[in-house]
Amino acid sequence: MSEFVKVARVGDIEAGTGKTVYLGGTPVALFNVDGEYFAIHNTCPHEDGPLGEGTLCGCVVTCPMHAYEFDVTSGECLTEPAYRVEQFEVQVDGDDILVRQSVD
Ligand code: FES
């Protein structure tokens, strides 16, 4: 089962940037790609860098620790294909940005 949880408001994240938000206890990197929002797990699978603090260029975020690149629309790592981060579904409801959370 899953449900959408509010994690931010439209306007909290400028286009071309990202932010770390929390979905329950899970850190999630939320990005604004030209007005469309994407969410991936915040923790880089290389050495746990915070992807929400990375630099976004188009739909690619660069990890602030060792510059591995991830496609925020898919969670794929462009630098090392063996790495991948979990992707979360995002919805915008009025001024609220919601991310889907799995519920047991
Ligand atoms: S921790 Fe992200 S590239 Fe190393």
Automatic annotation (TrEMBL):
GO molecular function terms attached to this record: 2 iron, 2 sulfur cluster binding; metal ion binding
Domain spans labelled Rieske: 5-99
Record-linked PROSITE patterns: RIESKE
Pfam family, one: Rieske
Assigned keywords, A-Z: 2Fe-2S, Aromatic hydrocarbons catabolism, Electron transport, Iron, Iron-sulfur, Metal-binding, Transport
Segments crossing the lipid bilayer: none
Similarity-based family: Belongs to the bacterial ring-hydroxylating dioxygenase ferredoxin component family.
Protein name, entry field: Non-heme iron oxygenase ferredoxin subunit
Native species: Pseudomonas cavernicola
